[in-house]
Design a protein that fits this description.
Elements lengths: L3 E4 L3 H13 L3 E7 L6 H5 L2 E6 L10 H11 L3 E3 L9 H9 L3 E2 L4 H8 L1 H10 L15 H11 L3 E5 L9 E3 L2 H19 L4 E5 L5 E10 L4 E13 L2 E7 L6 H18 L2 E11 L2 E8 L6 H8 L3 H9 L16 E8 L11 E2 L2 E3 L6 E5 L6 E2 L6 E9 L2 H14 L1 E3 L5 H7 L3 H4 L7 H8 L2
Parallel strand pairs: 1-2, 1-4, 2-3, 4-5
Antiparallel strand pairs: 6-7, 6-8, 9-10, 9-12, 10-11, 11-14, 12-13, 14-19, 15-18, 16-20, 17-19
Length: 447
């Protein structure tokens, strides 16, 4: 087991990892920018190192500073959290070259899944269902037209190097294809320095369903069920549920087993998420995230398994503590992402939190790094906390969520709490009847 873990992140996820390490009796090192000197993860860690000025590129993304912090403190492993360097293959390689364990998969697996065309090709080879589309990048309009005619309109053109929902264009008919192709190419070139694009069938009312997997790096893989993250705004997840209100247990085990076998065959090590669009009973792979996700907490709620303990165990060579037959799904869980944002326009709302009071009681978990009097720096992501609610079934979970949202007080800044108070009373949400466009339409209607 590791002696000392350096946590290369900030905010609630740094605290989340720190808690897991402490439970396992492992020393912790926090790193922070000058803007985060008063942050909770810094206060609670055994040691802390300032790694630079506020902008992320000079601190949380500064690989040299982080490796130096490991050497100064004698940390033997790094947990990257999510975001920042968590899917940076070069970072994983550099740590390995310094004999420091990266708590995550190999640099090569990160690299494969970071390239969308390569990821899709690999998924297909491993038996994962993918969206019908071009085999790799399309070279010209003629090829694009041929592929689109084959799979049928509407189609979506996506950047091979894409991310964050950028560089995607929909063509409803062949008449739109020429312009869509040209704009997607130009946007991809400008955003990613690579204008390679590929074509997929455009699904009209899909849900976003993702499967949590774990590999031991030595040929074993398990799945921990799925999460439904269809409630999104600008491709950002807002509300997540486990299990999905749309799947039955046969579908759950079918897609789960496919994913578990795929990661076993890949020799994948650690936690990962395989993301799908789901429509009319079919799953279509969109991407794999090779890290812990923000919404891992709802999987923890319904399985009772601490995913960060498991990540640390696997990375330290201790293997998985769980077999597929040990994993049981109990009840229902929902996570609401509390952002420091205007609940309607989503404009960031940094400032000082004058009062912070979290809900409690059975089935309630709040993961947050903030406190009364905390000043939110303007440099980073606006997530200030996550409310995770568990109940024996979805109805009980929703009742408890409504009550918990009423108890939650954040004064001094705007947050997304009022949006959740609206959503929890909405009949479509109560029925679990929504697709990936539902939230945007709802927000447009209530403007
Ligand atoms: P990124 O890596 O840029 O986030 P993804 O491939 O994960 O790109 O897709 C982001 C989002 O775009 C999906 O969650 C979905 O809303 C939409 N999308 C992607 N591919 C399709 C498709 N084939 N049909 C319909 N919507 C799609």
């Amino acid at each position: 087991m590791f002696q000392k873990i350096l946590i290369a992140n900030r905010g609630e996820i740094a605290l989340r990892v720190l808690r897991a390490a402490k439970e396992l009796g492992i020393q912790t090192v926090a790193v922070h920018s000058t803007a985060d000197a008063d942050a909770m993860h810094v206060r609670l860690a055994d040691e802390s190192v300032c790694i630079g000025p506020p902008p992320s590129r000079d601190s949380y993304l500064n690989i040299h500073q982080i490796v130096a912090a490991c050497e100064i403190t004698g940390a033997d492993a790094v947990h990257p959290g999510y975001g920042f360097l968590s899917e940076n293959a070069k970072f994983a390689d550099i740590l390995a070259a310094h004999n420091i364990t990266f708590i995550g998969p190999s640099g090569d697996h990160i690299r494969i899944m970071g390239d969308k065309i390569e990821a899709k090709r690999t998924a297909k080879r491993l038996g994962i269902p993918v969206v019908p589309g071009s085999e790799g990048a399309v070279s010209d309009e003629k090829e694009a037209k041929r592929v689109a005619a084959e799979i049928g309109y509407p189609v979506i053109i996506k950047a091979s190097a894409g991310g964050g929902g950028r560089g995607m264009k929909v063509a409803l008919t062949e008449a739109d294809l020429e312009i869509a192709l040209a704009t997607a190419r130009t946007e991809a070139g400008a955003a990613f320095g690579d204008d390679a694009v590929y074509i997929e069938k455009y699904l009209q009312k899909p849900r976003h369903i993702e499967v949590q997997i774990f590999g031991d790096g030595a040929g074993k893989g398990v799945h921990l069920g799925e999460r439904d993250c269809s409630l999104q705004r600008r491709h950002q997840k807002v509300w997540e549920e486990a299990n999905s209100p749309a799947l039955n247990s046969e579908e759950r085990s079918r897609i789960g087993d496919i994913c578990a076998n795929a990661v076993a065959n890949l020799g994948y090590s650690g936690a990962g998420t395989i993301e799908f669009l789901y429509e009319n009973g079919e799953f279509y792979f969109i991407e794999m995230n090779t890290r812990l996700q923000v919404e891992h907490t709802i999987t923890e709620a319904i399985t009772g398994i601490d995913l960060v303990h498991e990540q640390i165990r696997v990375a330290s060579g201790g293997g998985l503590s769980i077999k597929q037959s040990d994993i049981r799904f109990q009840g229902h869980a929902i996570e609401c992402r509390i952002n420091a944002e205007d609940p309607r326009t989503f404009a960031p709302s940094p400032g000082t939190i004058t009062h912070f009071h979290t809900p409690g009681g059975l089935g309630i978990r709040v993961d947050s790094g903030v406190y009364s009097g905390y000043r939110i720096p303007p440099y980073y992501d606006s997530l200030i906390g996550k409310l995770i609610v568990h109940g024996r079934n979805r109805v009980e979970c929703m009742m408890r969520l409504r009550r918990a949202l009423d108890e939650f007080v954040v004064d001094g800044i705007n947050t997304t709490l009022p949006l959740f108070r609206d959503l929890v009373g909405n009949p479509d949400i109560a029925n679990g009847d929504y697709d990936i466009h539902w939230l945007e339409k709802y927000l447009a209607k209530s403007e």
